[in-house]
Amino acid sequence: MQALGFEHHDHHRCKREALAAAEEHCARHRLNFTPVRRRVLELLLEGHRAMGAYEILDTLREEGLGAQPPVAYRALDFLVTNGFAHKIERLNAFVACMHPGEDHTPAFLICRACDAVAEAHADPARGFLGQAVRETGFVVEQAVVEAVGLCPGCAEART
Amino acid sequence: MQALGFEHHDHHRCKREALAAAEEHCARHRLNFTPVRRRVLELLLEGHRAMGAYEILDTLREEGLGAQPPVAYRALDFLVTNGFAHKIERLNAFVACMHPGEDHTPAFLICRACDAVAEAHADPARGFLGQAVRETGFVVEQAVVEAVGLCPGCAEART
DNA sequence: CTTGATATGTTACAGGATAACGTTTATCAA
DNA sequence: TTGATAAACGTTATCCTGTAACATATCAAG
């Protein structure tokens, strides 16, 4: 299992929708959704799992879209900056965003057995950092929440 | 400002206490608190900030305690595994734990202006991952919570 | 004393990321 | 149309992070 959500779903449809959302967002904000950027997002959506920059670069290279690391990193930066993809710090890898457009603090559930990654919502409003933190006066601008464990499938398989 | 907590505190005392706690824990669990491991923990406590493995290695090398990367990484692994230090994924760096002994899910507050790192508690019980996540059936074994923003001091300085 | 487990030392390299510089392409005002 | 400017791309070279693999040393238990 390598799915981005643990439940089954219409893969083609979510790819189409995510691409459409990115396209529209770029048009609306005068952002340049170039072939490389588009292709990298497609790869993330097709792979439907956390992918390393160099893995993506390999494909770009095969397709003649770029041969050096900066090409991949720049495209990934663009996607992350604009909310079309996220970086999983824990894995030094990237995933397509499952909720483009929505303003959200993603929380990732990483299965240590099958490497599947699911994107959920962390709820900053509910105070996932606890009351104590708010009292320190720290101004949170961005948060990374990543949980490692077992996905439903793998948890069951080990019973 | 490079402190590990944003508030002032007795630096020497917290170093002494953390070392004592590590020593006791190792004795209790028959763990080998070797010179290298001890020294790395000291360095983290003295530095009192997030430090890269290679930065630590530089000091070990100067002191004749080890010259190659695996030496530092192995010591750091030991410290992290046993809860004496944490890895900040976001920075690819390590910090001494501020609450050794207590069973906790650390949440780090990283100031993007001065690089100070504070360790707070995330509250898994309160559900920092939200109800929706629990419903997926994912079994969380370990969680990384890292917030980037401005510490009280830097936030004020920019007003 | 020997066996086994644990820790260390070293080489060599894999994998992740970016600085710096030059070239192309798109945009837009004069 | 042209010239100026910014944005994106291409490439080189290098840095930082991390680990596999293997040799050596240390130490406690049988």
Description of the molecule:
The structure is a homodimer of 159-residue chains. By secondary structure, the first copy, chain A, is an alpha+beta fold. Chain A folds into two domains: 11-96, Arc Repressor Mutant, subunit A, CATH 1.10.10; 105-157, Dna Ligase, domain 1 (2-Layer Sandwich). Helix content of chain A is 42%, strand content 21%. Chain A has six helices and five strands, in the order ααααββββαβα. A three-stranded mixed β-sheet of chain A has the order 4-3-5. In chain A, strands 1-2 form a two-stranded antiparallel sheet. In chain A, helix 2 (35-47) packs across helix 4 and helix 3 (53-62) crosses helix 4. The radius of gyration of chain A is 17 Å and the shape is globular. The mean pLDDT of chain A is 87. The A-B interface holds A 6-7, 89-90, 107, 109, 111-112, 118, 120-123, 126-130, 132-133, 136-152, 155 and B 6-7, 89-90, 107, 109, 111-112, 118, 120-123, 126-130, 132-133, 136-152, 155. Strand 5 of chain A pairs antiparallel with strand 5 (139-150) of chain B. The structure holds a DNA duplex (30 and 30 nucleotides).
